[in-house]
Specification:
Layout (H helix, E strand, L loop, with lengths): L1 H19 L2 H17 L7 H12 L4 H11 L9 E8 L5 E8 L2 H15 L2 E2 L9 E10 L5 H11 L3 E4 L3 E6 L4 H10 L6 E8 L3 E2 L2 H16 L3 E6 L1 E2 L2 H4 L4
Parallel strand pairs: 8-10
Antiparallel strand pairs: 1-2, 1-3, 2-9, 4-6, 4-7, 5-6
Length: 248
C-alpha cells in the first residue's frame, strides 16, 4: 500500500494549508451534501455523513457551513445537485489512478480532466480499467505521540483491523469497511485521537516509479487534487522517499 500510505501522509500535511485558504471547505461541503442526500441528514443513522462531518470538524470548518450543507443534502434548503462519478486513468510510469469526483456539470469536468492529463501526462482509461486494482478499506491515521504502539496494535486488532503500519510520525490502520465504525469506537472509548479517518481505496499491488516520471506523476496527482470537483485521488505508485520529500 506504498502509494496510498505515502500520498495519504502528504495530503494530511497539506490539509492545514488548504483549510487556511478555505479550499478544502467546498469539497467537504459537497461530500456532506451528497452523504445527507443519499442516506439522510441524521449522522447517527448515516455513517458516511458522520465521517464527513468528523473530517470537516477536524479541519475547523465552521459549524454553520456544516449545518447548511446537511440541510441542503436533506432537502431542507435549496442547492445544487451533484453527480458522483469515478474515472479510471493511468499516469506517468504506468501508475494506476482512480479518481472520485462530485460535479454539477459532468461535461465541463470531463473536458477539464482531459486538459489536465494532456498537460501533465498520462491518460484517462475506460470504465473499470484500473478500479479492480483497488480495494475499499477503512483508513485511520494516529499520531505516534498520541498512543502506545503495543497498546494500539492490540486494541485495533481486537476491534477488527487487518493491517497496522508504524511510520516515522504516525500509526496507520487499515480495516474492512464494515469494521471502520467499530475501530473508531474502540479508539474513542480508550481516549485515542486520530487525525485522519476515512473510507478509502487501497491498491492491491504497486508500481515502482522513479526519476523524471516520478516527478511528473506527483505533479499530475497535485493538479488533480487541486481541481474543485475532485474529492479523492488514489494511485498504486511506489516512489522513492527522497522524491516524495520534495512534494511535502
Amino acid at each position: 500500500m506504498s502509494g496510498h500510505s505515502k500520498w495519504a501522509s502528504i495530503k494530511h500535511k497539506k490539509a492545514a494549508v488548504d483549510a487556511k485558504r478555505g479550499k478544502v471547505f467546498s469539497k467537504l461541503a459537497k461530500e456532506i451534501i451528497v452523504a445527507a442526500r443519499s442516506g439522510g441528514g441524521n449522522p447517527d443513522m448515516n455513517s458516511r455523513l458522520r465521517t464527513a462531518i468528523e473530517t470537516a470538524k477536524a479541519v475547523n470548518m465552521p459549524a454553520t457551513n456544516i449545518e447548511k450543507a446537511v440541510k441542503r443534502g436533506a432537502g431542507e434548503l435549496e442547492g445544487v445537485t451533484y453527480e458522483e462519478i469515478t474515472y479510471d486513468a493511468y499516469g506517468p510510469g504506468g501508475a494506476a489512478i482512480l479518481i472520485h469526483l462530485l460535479t454539477d456539470n459532468k461535461n465541463r469536468t470531463a473536458s477539464e480532466l482531459r486538459r489536465i492529463f494532456s498537460r501533465k501526462g498520462g491518460n484517462i482509461a475506460g470504465v473499470g480499467a484500473v478500479s479492480w486494482i483497488f480495494s475499499k478499506k477503512g483508513f485511520i491515521r494516529v499520531d505516534r505521540a498520541k498512543a502506545d504502539e503495543e497498546q494500539l496494535f492490540l486494541l485495533i486488532t481486537e476491534a477488527g483491523a487487518e493491517d497496522f503500519t508504524t511510520e516515522s510520525d504516525a500509526y496507520e490502520i487499515i480495516c474492512p469497511p464494515g469494521e471502520f465504525e467499530n475501530v473508531k469506537k474502540q479508539l474513542q472509548e480508550n481516549g485515542i485521537e486520530w487525525d485522519t479517518a476515512a473510507i478509502t481505496f487501497v491498491p492491491n499491488n504497486t508500481v515502482k516509479v522513479e526519476g523524471k516520471e516520478a516527478q511528473q506523476l506527483l505533479a499530475l496527482m497535485e493538479a488533480l487534487e487541486e481541481h474543485d470537483d475532485i474529492q479523492n485521488v488514489y494511485s498504486n505508485f511506489d516512489i522513492p522517499d527522497e522524491i516524495l520529500a520534495q512534494t511535502t
